[in-house]
Amino acid sequence: MKNNSVKKLVYSAICLALCLVLPFLTGQIPEVGSMLLPMHLPVLLCGFLCGGTWGAAVGFVAPLLRNLLFGMPPMPWCISMAFEMAVYGLVVGLLYRKLGRSLKGIYGSLVCAMVAGRLVWGAVQAVILGLRGGSLTMSAFMAGAVTGAIPGIVLQLVLVPILVRALEKAGVKA
User: Fold this and answer.
1) What is the torsion angle, in degrees rounded to the nearest 10, for the CA atoms of residue 24, residue 26, residue 31 and residue 37?
2) Would you give per-residue pLDDT tens digits along the chain (174 residues)?
3) C-alpha dist (Å) from residue 119 to 113, 128, 139, 142, 158
4) Is residue 145 within 8 Å of residue 118, measured between CB atoms?
5) Are the CB atoms for 80 and 125 separated by under 8 Å?
6) b/e for 104-135, b at 16 or more Cβ within 10 A?
7) Contact 117/73 with Cβ under 8 angstroms?
8) How far apart are CA 84 and CA 91, in angstroms?
9) With CB atoms counted within 10 Å of each terminal CB, which end of the chain scores lower, N or C?
10) What is the SS3 assignment for the chain?
């Protein structure tokens, strides 16, 4: 049991480190980074590999820590991102355990987590904007949660299942 906890801690730490580093690959062009969503990939992988609790922890901490260290994502938007990514890690981890390790289970978990995370992102964005005297319109939500993120959504749907399968085939699981 202790060995499994250590594995989860190590895999989660690696995923958190990837969350901090991957945005540097796209950070030179902010529009590309916001479209490819590089921090989301390690959070989703953490949920698949380590379970919902670890995925949620990494997802919540990553944008806040990255803001503290590098100033990006900017405050207060990193708060909505923290809740969104925590939901990604939690939902993907919980559903993957329930739906099974088949390709259907991977995609079912992934799509449900992506939808739930985006809805939570929208809710938190609405609260933040409301506190600042604004509002989140449906068109702004769709632009931020869907249309502006289509490249990242496609990347997640293609790359995450491949990585999950490859890592499990290599025996990397907690």
Assistant:
1) -90
2) 578 889 999 999 999 999 999 998 886 676 666 678 889 999 999 999 999 999 999 999 999 999 999 998 889 889 999 999 999 999 999 999 999 889 999 999 999 999 999 999 989 988 888 888 887 777 777 777 777 788 889 999 999 999 999 998 998 876
3) 10, 14, 14, 10, 21
4) yes
5) yes
6) ebbebbbebbbebbbebbbebbbebbeeeeee
7) no
8) 11
9) N
10) CHHHHHHHHHHHHHHHHHHHHHHHHHCCCHHHHHHHCCCHHHHHHHHHHHCHHHHHHHHHHHHHHHHHHHCCCCCCHHHHHHHHHHHHHHHHHHHHHHHCCCHHHHHHHHHHHHHHHHHHHHHHHHHHHHHCCCCCCHHHHHHHHCHHHHHHHHHHHHHHHHHHHHHHHCCCCC
Q: Which amino acid is at 100?
A: G
Tokens matching residue 156: 């997640």
Identity of the amino acid at 105: G
CA-to-CA distance for 15 and 101, rounded, in angstroms? 20
Q: How far apart are CA 78 and CA 123, in angstroms?
A: 14
As a residue count, the chain comes to 174
Q: What is the pTM of this model?
A: 0.91
Q: Helices 103-131 and 138-145 meet at what angle, rounded to 10? A: 140
